[in-house]
Design brief:
Order of helices and strands: EHEHEHEEHEEHEHHEH
Number of domains: 1
Largest sheet: 9 strands, mixed
Radius of gyration: 16 Å
Number of helices: 8
Mean pLDDT: 86
CATH topology: Spore Coat Polysaccharide Biosynthesis Protein SpsA, Chain A
């Protein structure tokens, strides 16, 4: 049986911690590990995360100096012992069948190195759904991903990576401040074509200063 670790990076996300952790614990398929990396928070994030780790045996909390989301994800992945890695941004939420859907996909496609689900984008303030992904027509090849003809949607919160593939690709690039997830998917696609799970399983929170807002605003500059 495959094992799953969830990596959650967080910097000053005290208002989102409870909801994020609950969306993981409410999964129909419980992960083997939940690793929350406090990336130099100055609010009560560390206190809240530590309370969760003391009360739930699956949750492991750790802290690093402020290094950015890529370094936090990489550090969390280095602590994980599971076969597959999933990354969840602190203000995003998973549908209850998220992990189970990846597990079924892995059982049916054992050679798949990484898979991703569709997602919805929700305005944090109004709770209005801004966009819902639909299945894409192009096959997810390296060329499609590289040319952005085929988008791995939902940022890192939608992806499940084989641990060996993550290690081979050397993880997220800490030197990038925008587009770091897309850049990793390009490198992963060189080694293993991605697989799309044709279900909306992630709710992306779009708010001022959020990771997704920064990504949407800066992707042209990244190119």
């Amino acid at each position: 049986m495959s094992t799953f670790a969830v990596i959650v990076p967080v910097h000053n996300g005290e208002e989102f911690v409870d909801g994020c952790i609950r969306s993981i614990l409410n999964q129909t398929r419980t992960p083997e590990e939940i690793i929350i990396v406090n990336d130099g928070s100055t609010d009560d994030t560390a206190k809240i995360v530590n309370q969760w780790s003391r009360s739930h045996h699956l949750i492991r909390s750790t802290s690093i100096s402020k290094q950015g989301v890529s370094a936090a994800r990489n550090y969390g992945a280095s602590l994980a012992k599971s076969d597959f890695l999933l990354f969840l941004d602190i203000d995003d939420r998973w549908f209850p069948e998220k992990i189970a859907s990846h597990e079924v996909h892995i059982l049916n496609h054992p050679n798949c190195g990484f898979s991703f689900s569709l997602s919805e984008i929700v305005n944090y303030e109004s709770k209005e759904k801004i966009k819902i992904d639909t299945s894409q027509t192009k096959n997810p090849t390296l060329f499609n991903v590289l040319m952005h003809e085929f988008q791995i949607l939902g940022s890192s919160s939608s992806v499940c990576l084989n641990r060996k593939l993550f290690d081979s690709s050397k993880g997220f690039n800490p030197q990038l401040t925008r587009g770091e997830d897309w850049e990793l998917w390009v490198r992963c696609s060189e080694l293993s074509p991605p697989c799309e799970i044709d279900r909306v399983l992630v709710s992306i929170s779009l708010r001022q200063n959020s990771v997704e807002q920064s990504k949407l605003a800066g992707i042209d500059n990244f190119y």
